[in-house]
Design a protein that fits this description.
Organism: Planobispora takensis
CATH superfamily of the largest domain: Vaccinia Virus protein VP39
Strand content: 15-25%
GO molecular function: methyltransferase activity
Strand order of the largest sheet: 3-2-1-4-5-7-6
Order of helices and strands: HHHEHEHEEHEHHEE
Helix content: 25-40%
Shape: globular
InterPro entries: Methyltransf_25, SAM-dependent_MTases_sf
CATH topology of the largest domain: Rossmann fold
Keywords: Methyltransferase, Transferase
Number of domains: 2
CATH class of the largest domain: Alpha Beta
Protein name: Methyltransferase
Radius of gyration: 17 Å
């Protein structure tokens, strides 16, 4: 899972015992060499699905990390693209990789934008928000978009109950809950709280019109359903 250039076990333990913000500051120098970085095939599938809906004006990457989402935004947006994250370490790496983009340090639960963007994307970030925090996130993205603007992000289908992946993700979530019950500050990262139905309801409550499209390039499950869908939430 990790390349030789990735973090050591000791570094991962230190990160896991930190807050989310400080943990990502610590991980930032080696983040590109971890499985936590969104794979290029997911980014490319997202870009392919969005291309017929564009071109777009200005673009925003919500919880941008080291800037992998620029692979999607830069070809699709005619205006300037911006990344927002609350980890200074991740933003420093993003700025080095994409100096032409704009970078803003902010808590995305209180985004400092209003009517500024035509397309917003996010990759792998929803698990860092408790269900009670998602309304503020979705409301902020809705506010940041211009009328008719689009918020898009991929979301994986839940693995079958009989699959090893199901039990590994469940075990991870349980371990995180035990860790957060025993240790402060909390490190919020849960895989089981981002079901499509809950995300759909939260986006609708924030004022979005929500559809999804299958990202068939990422494969199908044994039951024939797509492994991943792209959520398309449009501000009316």
């Amino acid at each position: 899972m990790f390349s030789p250039q990735g973090p050591s076990l000791r570094e991962l333990v230190i990160q896991a015992l930190s807050s989310v913000e400080h943990g990502y500051d610590l991980l930032a120098p080696k983040f590109e060499h971890t499985p936590f970085r969104t794979p290029d095939d997911v980014l490319d599938a997202t870009a392919d699905a969005l291309r017929p809906l564009g071109p777009f004006g200005r673009g925003l990457d919500v919880c941008c990390g080291t800037g992998a989402g620029m692979r999607v935004l830069e070809p699709l947006c005619r205006g300037r693209v911006t990344g927002v994250d609350f980890s200074a370490g991740m933003l420093e790496r993003a700025r080095r990789a994409h100096p032409e983009a704009g970078w803003v340090r902010a808590d995305v639960r209180a985004l400092p934008f209003a009517g500024s963007f035509d397309l917003a994307v996010s990759f792998g970030a929803l698990g860092h928000f408790l269900p009670a925090e998602r309304p503020a996130l979705f409301a902020g993205v809705h506010r940041a978009l211009r009328p008719g603007g689009l918020f898009a992000f991929p979301i994986g289908a839940p693995p079958p109950l009989t699959s090893p992946r199901y039990w590994s993700l469940l075990g991870f979530d349980l371990a995180m809950r035990v860790r957060n019950a025993l240790w402060r500050p909390a490190f919020v990262m849960y895989y089981g709280t981002c079901r499509l139905s809950a995300v759909h309801d939260g986006l609708t409550a924030a004022g979005f019109t929500v559809t999804t499209v299958p990202l068939t390039a990422l494969g199908r499950r044994e039951d024939g359903g797509p492994r991943c869908r792209l959520v398309l939430a449009r501000r009316a």
